[in-house]
Specification:
Strand content: 25-35%
CATH class: Alpha Beta
Shape: globular
Order of helices and strands: EEHHEEEEE
CATH architecture: Roll
Distance between the termini: 46 Å
Helix content: 10-25%
CATH superfamily: RNA-binding S4 domain
């Protein structure tokens, strides 16, 4: 007996920044992925956020154009 499982595709959201880089915690707030900076700190430190496919626990990680942050099955693209 074979079981087929459908995996939902991850939603992608593009966000443009006007500077050379943005910190990961500020980017999550800008995308409305988290409510506050404190919330961003917690989810990042608990390993719930991926940057470019790898778990990132540095809330001050600099994101530049072309980077991707993933949180709760949503991919946020930095433009």
């Amino acid at each position: 007996m074979k079981i087929k499982v459908k995996v939902a595709e991850k939603r992608q959201i593009n966000k443009k920044i006007d500077t050379d880089f943005i910190r990961l915690d500020a980017f999550l707030k800008m995308c409305d992925a988290v409510q506050t900076g404190g919330h961003a700190k917690i989810v990042i430190q608990e390993g719930e956020v991926r940057v470019n496919g790898e778990i990132c626990t540095q809330r001050g990680k600099k994101l530049r154009s072309g980077d991707k942050a993933e949180f709760e099955n949503v991919i946020y693209n930095v433009e």
